[in-house]
Amino acid sequence: MEMASLREAYGKALVELGAQNKNIVALDADLSKSTRTALFQEAYPERFFEISIAEQNMIGVAVGLALTGKIPFVNSFAVFATGRTYDQIRQSACIANINIKICGSSSGLSDFGDGATHQSLEDVALMRVLPNMTVLVPVDAVETKKMVEFAVRHNGPVYLRINRNDLPVYTDESTEFELGKLYQMRDGEDAVVFANGVMVSKAMEAAEILEKEGTGVRVVNVSTVKPLKKEEVLKYIKGVKGIVTAEEHSIIGGLGSAIVELLRDVDHPPVEFIGVKDRFGTSASNYEELLEYFGLTSKSITLTIKDLLDRC
Amino acid sequence: MLSNDLIERIERTALKLRLDILEMVGVGKAGHLGGSSSCADIVAALYFYKMKIDPENPHYEDRDRFLLSKGHGALAQYAALVELGYIPREEMKKVKTLDGILQGHPDMTKTPGIEANTGSLGQGLSIATGMALGLRLDGKDSRVYVIVGDGELSEGQIWEAAMCAGYYKLDNLVAIIDNNGLQATGPIKERFNIYPIAPKWESFGWHVREIDGHNIREIIETLDELDNVRGKPKVMIARTVKGKGFSFAENDPAFHNIALTEEQYIQAKRELESRMARWS
User: Fold this and answer.
1) Phi-psi region of B198 (alpha: psi -120 to 50; beta: other; left: phi over 0)
2) Which of A172, B198, B219, B220 has a CA that sits 20 to 30 A from residue A77's CA?
């Protein structure tokens, strides 16, 4: 499968959109080489603001820029962009629905070597709980680009969660990104996996394995975690005997929680969560090894689906 | 030399703001009397002399911006916005109620004339910095004025913003420190001692002026003088008195956020009105 870098796609998309829309500005906290806003800096130095290692101030400066009509993209590693700055995002940006875009780069476990301090397993939960916030988790480089385009069109705060590593490309230019829409990646009638980010590829692998064993698995890419539409979720649980959610995030407060919140008042098949079970990250020598360590694999999805279906 | 008439007009306005603050604090309901009255003279000088604004058109593009980083001083700003006609006078009675448009801390989504949501201390200076950057990017000559509390200087984000504005040499940014010396629970000197204040800002590339924050002539002459300082953000350290104008509350941290008794309310009203009467 074709692999492509999400952060490279992000950086290029910013440059491309920046050419048409002079209100787009970018801010970074000494990580522009990693987040790839270095590309924007190179193209439009006057619209790039190096804010140095001061993320809280960066959010405030972005809010001020937005209040003068700019569309600021704020960049740092996901853990700093959302955790260190939570109060600034809440108070300065979200209460008044300010038009800032927060790009959480090197999200989840994708910065595998740097360990717990640099890995973000709580960011989706933190951003999701904020009124007015939109939370997006792209599945691949192509969807990343479309989400940047969306973020520019959308008036209000957006959180975009970007993986550090190359990921398989599932979407193509012709698929339009629509806020809140769920994207079925393959169909099957026995179980459904709601996944996002890197976990979509793991779910696809699991579905292939199970297909050979005669079990049909539907895989749905939930790239909009918020706003999540109930009717969309209900559409994809129709007929299945088990529901699995899969995310590179804590099982507390993320995609799984969001799905179950919507299903709480309807009859639904049993649900299981694949995610990190209330733990911090750790250093590893490569990404796959770390995903395996936390059970974020096609194998664990396969076993979980089997277990769920055995219960029926 | 500014005329005595002008100075007197702003002084009277500042008294009016204090009367409005008193009305909003009222009897028996808590309000930030101390920190609103310590910055009332600065607020009056900015809104009624210095700033380029249009109350008929709050979003007028070339306006100067005012932010209250110490958002708990909101009553001073609300008073100015009432006197200028941004806010209907009857809203003062509904401050901090479900029926009103005046929140406990400034909210741009609810109150005309408010430029940003502030109140979580330490954040307004960063927003002001971003506004100053944005205005400069657009080639506007509008200025951004932001009042920062001295207790607020304990917030680390203030110093992040100070370094940032210094780095970007934002000469369209003026910060005013309401240096009343008291935070909610007592004297700043006995908490994290932030003194000396001036050299800290100087070292981050700011032009610093220290003034008497209740001397209208000094406030407005300094504001005018700062227009001519180029290539640096500017900070006015204004020595003020918490509770200024309310004799029983001056320099008493107990009046940070407190309800007034009926006796206190009557006394304050009498004192302010008798000062006002001297001019008429």
Assistant:
1) alpha
2) A172
- Cβ <8 Å between B164 and A67: no
Closest CA to B23 of B65, B68, B78: B78
Residue B253 has pLDDT above 90, yes or no: no
Q: Are A96 and B129 in contact (CB < 8 Å)?
A: no
Element housing A78 (H / E): helix A78-79
Cβ-contact B221, B250 below 8 angstroms: no
Categorize the per-residue pLDDT at B280 as very low, low, confident or very high, splitting at 50, 70 and 90. Answer: low
Q: Which of A2, A50, A55, A248 is catalytic?
A: A55
- Cβ atoms of A289 and A283 closer than 8 Å: no
**CA gyration radius, chain A:** 19
Q: A133 vs chain B: nearest CA distance in angstroms?
A: 16
Q: What type of residue sits at position B234?
A: K
Is A55 designated active site? yes
Task: Decide if A12 contacts A174 (C-beta within 8 A).
Answer: no
Predicted pLDDT at B30: 83
For chain B, how big is the Rg over CA atoms in Å? 18
Mean pLDDT of chain A: 97
**Minimum CA–CA partner of B109 in chain A:** A96
Query: Which amino acid appears at position A286 of this protein?
Result: N
pLDDT tens sequence across A26-40: 999 999 999 999 999
Structure tokens at A273: 């969560």
Question: Whose CA is closest to B274, among B252, B242, B245, B243?
Answer: B245
CA distance B145 to B135: 13
Distance CA B235, CA B174 (A): 6
Amino acid identity at B185: T
Q: pLDDT of B191-222, one tens digit each?
A: 999 999 999 999 999 999 999 999 999 999 99
- Give residue A143's identity as a one-letter amino acid code: E
For chain A, list residues with pLDDT below 50. Answer: none
| Residue B256: per-residue pLDDT | 84
pLDDT in tens, A53-92: 999 999 999 999 999 999 999 999 999 999 999 999 999 9
Q: Is the dihedral of CA B105, B108, B110, B114 positive or negative?
A: positive
User: In whole angstroms, what is the distance from residue B183 CA to residue A277 CA?
Assistant: 43
**Where does residue A228 fall: left (phi above 0), alpha (psi -120 to 50 degrees), or beta otherwise?**
beta
Give the span between the Cα atoms of B17 and B80, in whole angstroms: 6
- The amino acid sitting at A87 is D
The token pair that represents B214 in the structure block:
């209740």
Binary contact (B157, A96; C-beta < 8 A): no
